[in-house]
């Protein structure tokens, strides 16, 4: 079959080609998942297959950002001792095998090659007129509740409504309005016509569309996500509006070109610096690991399964010090791919990783006999929701907030004064979706018994939890308590779709408790002893507290064991709070730390309730014995894996194709937000304006902000997060890892593209080997180790 | 009637479906998590955590006079994304559903 010559294509075929190119051009930036479920994502995810170096040199610069720290920043790290001379010299030697001489000589030459930063500066914040007009329309169309006047998007669509409004918009010149009126009503045909009128030839269309979309990466990313979910707008519509405006206003056919990223020698320098910067943090992780070690606790009183989130590492470490507890790590959705409908909620929400589509819906219901309590709770939640709606209602009417404040200020004033003066003291920081009544999750209405058994089996086998059950097993989700924080969901569990993890943990615990499910599991070779109870818990990462659920129905002896765990978890939480407070801006250290972190969680003016996943540096996939004695400083994702229980490699494939991917997304989001906060970060929380649930803009208008706010990555004195690529330690045979890299494109892209540094323990104790595109190679950080020795000696 | 079948990565399946709808097809069938072996290796469709990395099969049937336009559009899409397209003559029991 041959391609039809352009002159003979029908208009429909040409419009379809334009549509196809728009969809391809959209890959200039990853979808942005919004604030309702702020899922971390690598902003240049579509360029994953091109590798990290290409992202630094082209994918990030295409969006107007830089993909690596600047030379001046790396030199400052060298000057401050964060990068040791030995680490930089080792990195130079790895990249330039022919380089000879002492470390000092290598450094002297390397530093003399280039005196100052070659990284492109961030773009100026001011928008050109086209960007300004497109941004304003995006805001009006995608968050119509915040628009000053009704926009007919529901009826006419994104492009159609713009055309209807713009042809009568007095802010546009009369000639432009006339041109807009001439354009076709259908977005694809209009885009095709506007491209023709601008003289953009067939083979120039794709790069032209990419450049136009890259001009406003935030709105492009938000529309990509919206097209995948509600489907009421697509990137084609955005392009139709933008290109039509360009033609109507007689503007330049293409946006101003971006500064180029580092290439050639400059790129090599950037990679040398980056590796030197990563050496110490990665080496510090590897130095603490103990491949082949025996378990410290032979017969644990309780086994707690935590989310792989690095914040869990802190609580796990402190809890294990309290007694006969063992812990493991698993993605915090616990294999529950459900949409969850909390008690009294208006609708359900996906509570599973964003890589999954929910397969069933589970509703929270009052337990038998507690309907009266539940009814009171539902009334209370309804009243709270109505009050909030009434307070917010005038926001949608121009001029109304001022008058509304005049009328209601006396009512809300005392509350505002109390919240300001007491700053979190006295008031418990609650969440409207917290159920106070005894409830259960109705798994029987959601899943047949067969499906329940299937799900339970998959959960246990993937966790590697198929034998030696402790008498108490606790599945611990996590969430955060914070007040007045647009980025709250960015601190909740990413595995649970940016929601708290308790519902998933409770559903999984209910499955593993049901007698019929246990009987079914026994027939499949997984025997959970009758004496083993499985309950759910939730780790609050802002207050360091552990809440245990559904314990009122337990036998008295079981309840005593759970209460003992609760007491030990409280001690562990206080220890963790003291550790975290040392890093939180303005937090007291020592005795008052636990109270202080709880107070911050309820303080409506607090922009640093916690640090989230800042400083994440590694992912460890292996048994707990690999890291049981380590203090990993809350910098490591810990995913449990027992290679001897996974001869076929199915569990490892699951881990490498999903939790690894999610960990990389998180790592990359923090990385890019830190290396270029102006383009890939969301700016300061203090100047954010919310655009519905879609996102934020800094100030009154402009592009939607991607990534994390500055308060998630830095302080007044500079970056808190260190932009490092993820070190991935896998305890598995070489061939098993190779087979998965060979069959799963996403894993190959991450490893071959050097987005992650994947290592396994080598043949001799203490040695490591790294998987690269070329195969397995010895992996040493001699520079980091000698730097560490120097530090220790000092 | 012409049957057009496209096997694409699930992340690209939305774009395929948009082509089908924009070409005026009256419907399509979408099969998630199809498995197979191809240019990019084996796709086994394991979905415990990740169904975005699987493959999706989109099937549509259009009158012959609409087929060329749709094939043109899909070909443009597949020039830059992984996937395969199959085109064949077909017969349907209720032709008026597909006009």
From TrEMBL, chain A:
- Region: Disordered, residue numbers: 766-794
Location relative to the cell:
Cell membrane
Q: What Pfam families does the annotation carry?
A: DabA
From which residue to which does any coiled coil extend?
Answer: none
Q: How does this chain sit within the bilayer?
A: Peripheral membrane protein
Q: Which UniProt keywords apply?
A: Cell membrane, Membrane, Metal-binding, Transport, Zinc
Chief site of localization: membrane
Q: Which cofactor does it need?
A: Zn(2+)
Top-rank taxon of the source lineage equals Bacteria
Q: Where does Zn(2+) bind?
A: 307, 309, 478, 493
**Task of the protein:** Part of an energy-coupled inorganic carbon pump.
* Subunit comment: Forms a complex with DabB.
Q: Which family does it belong to?
A: Belongs to the inorganic carbon transporter (TC 9.A.2) DabA family.
What's the name of the protein? Answer: Probable inorganic carbon transporter subunit DabA
Gene that encodes it: dabA
Automatic annotation (TrEMBL), chain B:
- Spell out the Pfam families in the cross-references: P-II (PF00543)
What's the domain of life for this entry? Answer: Bacteria
Q: Which Gene3D superfamilies did the record assign? A: 3.30.70.120
Spell out the InterPro entries in the cross-references: N-reg_PII (IPR002187), N-reg_PII-like_a/b (IPR011322), N-reg_PII/ATP_PRibTrfase_C (IPR015867)
Recorded protein name is P-II family nitrogen regulator
Source organism: Microcella humidisoli
